[in-house]
Amino acid sequence: MLQNKDFLVLLIRLFLGYVFFSAGVCKLTHGNFGQLIGPPWLEERLAEYGLSFFAQVVAVCQVVLGTLLFTQRFSTLGAVMLVPMNIAILAVTISQNWAGTPYVNAVFLAMNLALLLYDRKRFQFLFSIEPALSAPSLALDTLRTGKLPWAVIGAALLTLGLSRFNYPLTNAAGLLTFCLAGATVILPHALDRLQKLIVLLAVGNMCFLTLGMKLPYTHVSIAICSGGILVLLVVHAWLHARQKRTASTV
């Protein structure tokens, strides 16, 4: 069973991984992939200024960074690389006077910094004159092993490869990426049953959001999954607090 702090970091990785992976694929498929932040018309808008290729690079970078967060194995690298992108997106939304959007991006940046704060001990060697012998062990390191992180990368590359040729297959490859990202977390024995159920609901939300344009009652399904996640998170926090009280009285 992961502690509350570790499990929260894991959920943030999955959330930001989905946000940026789906946003990048949505741009590459011109809006034919469900996502949260957009804008799907970035390439068309920047093409007016001869920056179509730049828009494609931004989209591919978003997919890559989201994939790194999904893998858990390379999530620290993804969190580091995501900081300048989050800052750039925040600066653009402020300069364009987009109502409300800067606040959303500020939350994403805060989540990004929280991931780096969790991994702060890995960066101590940057400020020390002593040679780094080994990276400190963290609770989530148990999710870094095995072949599933590489399978996530393979599915993400397949999604990228299909994004310019076939939108239905791109959606299918994207769903495969989400499922593998969930399996990377669920199959190891680091999580208890309640935590695994929360992750399953989160992956379900990813799938519903991706196929939202094609499935009936999508909003209801997303609301049910989101409500279930919130309820289970409260139950999880309560059980963990009770467990700590019981341990302290023994």
From TrEMBL:
<dbReference type="Pfam" id="PF07681">
    <property type="entry name" value="DoxX"/>
</dbReference>
<feature type="transmembrane region" description="Helical">
    <location>
        <begin position="7"/>
        <end position="30"/>
    </location>
</feature>
<feature type="transmembrane region" description="Helical">
    <location>
        <begin position="173"/>
        <end position="190"/>
    </location>
</feature>
<feature type="transmembrane region" description="Helical">
    <location>
        <begin position="50"/>
        <end position="70"/>
    </location>
</feature>
<keyword id="KW-0812">Transmembrane</keyword>
<keyword id="KW-0472">Membrane</keyword>
<protein>
    <submittedName>
        <fullName>DoxX family membrane protein</fullName>
    </submittedName>
</protein>
<feature type="transmembrane region" description="Helical">
    <location>
        <begin position="219"/>
        <end position="239"/>
    </location>
</feature>
<dbReference type="GO" id="GO:0016020">
    <property type="term" value="C:membrane"/>
</dbReference>
<dbReference type="InterPro" id="IPR032808">
    <property type="entry name" value="DoxX"/>
</dbReference>
<feature type="transmembrane region" description="Helical">
    <location>
        <begin position="77"/>
        <end position="94"/>
    </location>
</feature>
<feature type="transmembrane region" description="Helical">
    <location>
        <begin position="100"/>
        <end position="118"/>
    </location>
</feature>
<keyword id="KW-1133">Transmembrane helix</keyword>
